[in-house]
Design brief:
The complex is a heterodimer of chains A (420) and B (118). Chain A has 420 residues and is mainly alpha-helical. Chain A has a domain of 108 residues. Helix content of chain A is 72%, strand content 0%. Chain A starts with a helix and ends in a 7-residue tail after the last helix. Chain B has 118 residues and is α+β, with helices and mostly antiparallel strands. Chain B has one domain: Dimeric alpha+beta barrel (Alpha-Beta Plaits). In chain B, 34% of the residues lie in helices and 36% in strands. Chain B is built from four helices and six strands. Chain B has a four-stranded antiparallel sheet with strand order 2-5-1-6. Chain B has a two-stranded antiparallel sheet with strand order 3-4. In chain B, a hairpin with a 2-residue loop joins strand 3 and strand 4. Chain B is flat, with a radius of gyration of 16 Å. The chains are: A mainly alpha (420), B alpha+beta (118). At the A-B interface, helix 19 and helix 20 of A face helix 2, helix 3 and helix 4 of B.
């Protein structure tokens, strides 16, 4: 009996991961009542956990879950007053049943669901959380931790967004070609936001955050598989894989932070880099030349260190030039300045950084102060470097990075600083 | 809005550190306080002496009762606080996460209930 129980639970977990978003998208596509679909689906999963270990896993777990969830939805609609809206609702649900009988394969409307989550009518900050919840089934508390928001606030924002989808009638359709590119950017941004929140896990040990980065890559793979001819969908996946390939190398054996320039390329994940490179080539064929493709190309220029022992800094400067022109992002300008210091020396890098000093968006951005401190150290301006390190240390979340910055700062205080 | 960041941590772990580690830890707090200051959010903050120095007072049935030690005997104790003024809870949480206390202990974020506010 015991192995069967485990198998049932495992099957339910597997179905949850593979099918959650697909079932939500299918159940809510017409009614747009995602909260209702979530409730029905969670009841279906609870039923599966009770039944599958005893009666065995059904031949098609997905179809089984859909049948149970749909029944729950119909019951819920009947329980409500039989007003006009409820009658319409029941009609749609009947259609849903017909759809399913005709087609044994549940149509995959997850792409439409992703577009609905990143709809311009949905508040910017809640798009990534909404995707994680509706496509992957994460609970509000887990998402709140990852995005550093109070759990009650996150739950409230998610509820508000779902209400908006239903009341405003936000469509689950994939936009027409003309609007697709514009709308796609929001989807890409949300997926990448989920990735960066997961990636910046302070201790390098928080399983939930690490998990989130993996889930964002999963979303990226889903998007790339659904839109194989969109350069930016391939670009964002390539970018995430490049960054992810260096994950292990970011910490030493004793848990100390290792900056990119000091990482041992032997500790990078070669298979992941190869996949990222292939995606980048594929993206290049689409001829979009968008933000994510350019950023992935930057990572690719870092990855050449595997073979040549040196990053291609000249290419990196050019790519950041293009990114600055394309996005006007202060972070791109900051990275360009750092790259410039490699090709033209620290003074040139500092001059480029000085041009950004008045940008208030960078005033509380740790990497700006860390970069400034590093370049000041290289030019021998140790007192100024110390001040910049101090600011970077005060703004840093990750204790390992904080220790690293403190060690660098200590070198500025020593009588003959190393690296000068 | 004003928020109090209450830092709870295990003081015995701090005591067990080497002098260099202690200095590094305190310097991190110094840098954090300075960053708060520069951002304009800082309203105040202090480190508290260890709980062995605490004295607790209450009136029970009109009689005063004075006890040695903290109110609650827990491994992690209130060790310091920052009072900050930021636009909303999200901003307060972001500063709380940067506080060194968040990595060696926990930081509780509490909105200040100003006098006279309902």
């Amino acid at each position: 009996m015991e192995p069967d129980r485990n198998e049932g639970a495992r099957a339910a977990e597997g179905a949850a991961r593979q099918s959650y978003g697909k079932l939500i998208a299918f159940l809510a596509a017409r009614t747009r009542d995602v909260a209702g679909a979530e409730d029905a689906l969670s009841e279906a999963f609870a039923a599966a956990l009770a039944e599958w270990p005893v009666r065995g896993v059904p031949r098609s777990p997905e179809a089984w879950l859909l049948t149970v969830a749909r029944r729950r939805l119909v019951d819920a609609a009947r329980r409500r007053q039989l007003d006009q809206a409820a009658a319409e609702h029941l009609g749609w649900l009947a259609e849903l049943a017909a759809d399913q009988d005709d087609a044994p394969v549940i149509p995959d409307r997850r792409l439409g669901l992703l577009f609905a989550c990143a709809h311009p009518g949905i508040d910017h900050g809640v798009r990534a959380p909404l995707m994680l919840q509706l496509v992957l089934g994460f609970d509000a508390a887990t998402i709140a931790s990852a995005f550093l928001v109070a759990p009650a606030t996150m739950a409230q924002r998610l509820t508000r967004a779902k209400t908006k989808i239903r009341q405003a009638g936000i469509s689950f359709d994939v936009p027409e070609q003309a609007a697709l590119h514009e709308r796609l950017d929001a989807v890409l941004d949300a997926i990448y936001a989920a990735y960066t929140e997961g990636w910046s896990d302070p201790q390098g040990s928080d399983a939930r955050r690490r998990n989130l980065a993996d889930e964002a890559i999963w979303l990226g793979r889903l998007l790339a598989s659904l839109l194989p001819n969109e350069g930016e969908a391939l670009g964002v996946l390539s970018l995430m894989l490049h960054a992810h390939a260096r994950r292990e190398a970011r910490r030493s054996a004793s848990g100390e932070y290792v900056p990119l320039s000091e990482q041992d390329p032997a500790r990078w994940d070669t298979r992941m880099i190869d996949e990222a490179e292939a995606l980048l080539v594929q993206a290049g064929r689409c001829g979009t030349g968008g933000r994510y493709e350019l950023e992935a190309a930057v990572q690719s220029a870092h990855a050449v260190r595997r073979r040549t022992g040196k990053a291609d800094w000249a290419a990196i400067v050019q790519l950041y030039d293009a990114l600055c022109a394309l996005t006007g992002s202060p972070v791109a300008a900051l990275n360009r300045a750092v790259a410039l210091a490699e090709t033209q020396g620290p003074a040139a890098g500092l001059a480029a950084l000085d041009a950004l000093t008045d940008d208030s968006r960078l005033a509380e951005y740790q990497p700006y102060w860390a970069a400034r401190a590093e370049l000041l150290t290289r030019t021998g301006a140790f007192d100024a470097a110390l001040g910049a390190y101090h600011q970077a240390i005060g703004l840093e979340r990750d204790p390992a990075v904080r220790r690293f910055l403190q060690q660098r700062a200590a070198l500025c205080r020593a009588p003959t600083p190393a690296g000068s | 809005m004003e928020y109090m960041l209450l830092i709870y941590s295990d003081y015995s772990r701090f005591e067990a550190m080497s002098a260099a580690q202690k200095a590094e830890g305190l310097a991190a707090y110094g840098a954090y306080a300075e960053a708060l200051q520069k951002s304009g959010a800082m309203r105040g903050g202090n480190r508290l002496r260890p709980v062995q120095s605490a004295t607790t007072v209450r009136l029970k049935a009109g009689k005063s009762e004075v006890l040695n030690g903290p109110y609650a005997e827990t491994r992690e104790q209130l060790g310091g606080y920052f009072l900050i003024d930021v636009p909303d809870l999200d901003a307060a949480l972001s500063w709380a996460a940067r506080c060194p206390g968040a990595s060696h202990g926990v930081v509780e974020v509490r909105p200040v209930w100003a006098m006279g506010q309902p």
